[in-house]
Amino acid sequence: MRTLIINADDLGANTQRTHGIFQCFEFGIVTNATLLPNATDSDRAGKQAREKRLPTGLHLNLTEEYPLGKRESIESLLEGNGMFLQGNRMKTALDAGEVKKEHLEREIRAQIDWFFDTVGTPTHVDSHHHIHTHPFVAAALIPVLERYAVRFVRIPLEEPLPPFGYIITNEQLEKTKRINAQATIAKEMYGAYGIATSDHFRGLTLAGNASLKNIRHIIGRLPEGVTELMVHPGSACTYGTPFDLDPQRQTELRMLTDATIAEELKEREIRLASYGDL
């Protein structure tokens, strides 16, 4: 049997991104979402997710915005202005051993506690910029997941790589290879403690390349077992990050609410599910 989890990242990023994700859940094929704990629309989006019964996981965020933990207790995670070390700066600090494990654990617990208080039990955990696949973060996250009985994480290991039906740039291919290499190590680390994931993963190469044609390539080549497809839909934004403002957010929204895609899934007997169904 082929089962597909279509997970929308960044719920709560802002009102427009939140609105787009709920549209794709209510009128399209999104079956799961992951909620940012520290973004501008996080609290409202979390309450809405609970009310609408959208299966929701935690989108752990250690690379953007402000932390939920007390600044003085997690200083090795932060810039001088109190925000997280941004993107690659966090990865560089992790690689250099500049981040303290106890600081990671405190912030991870703060974000999971917030999630339980706002939504309930997360269907799974993934993260902004896939930071949870870094070995040092994984080592800090695993005991917290065990304590809170969270059974699933995303492992963004996308195989096979091109050629598989649509074209991506060499830069995106190399980035995907780097993510795959770290995800391979992370899969072993989480699996050793009985923390499971989907059998397959898609979405790294679809990012920036969303279209009806390309999602059909993914659906047409879907392997047996459970596959997670990572997506990032959103309504039109007038403010936000360049990623929020990218027209691809609306392209993904249209792609995920297109009736012909839902019909193709039925014709191919692909079952839609969430992590909560596993």
Write up this protein.
This protein has 278 residues and is of the alpha/beta class. Strands 1, 2, 3, 4, 5, 6 and 7 form a seven-stranded parallel sheet that branches. It starts with a strand and ends in a 5-residue tail after the last strand. The mean pLDDT is 96. The chain contains ten helices and seven strands. The radius of gyration is 18 Å and the shape is globular. Strand 5 (200-202), helix 7 and strand 6 form a beta-alpha-beta unit. The chain has a single domain (2-277), classed as Glycoside hydrolase/deacetylase (TIM Barrel, Alpha-Beta Barrel). Helix content is 42%, strand content 13%.
Considering the chains and any ligands shown, give keywords for the structure:
single chain; 42% helix; 278 residues
User: Count of DSSP E strands?
Assistant: 7
Number of helices in the DSSP assignment: 10
Overall pLDDT confidence:
96
Rough shape? globular
- Following the backbone from N to C, one meets helices and strands in this order, namely EHEHEHHEHHEHEHHHE
Low-confidence stretches: none
The assigned CATH architecture is Alpha-Beta Barrel
Distance between the termini: 13 Å
Summarize the model shown:
The chain has 278 residues and is an alpha/beta fold. It is 42% helix and 13% strand. Strands 1, 2, 3, 4, 5, 6 and 7 form a seven-stranded parallel beta sheet that branches.
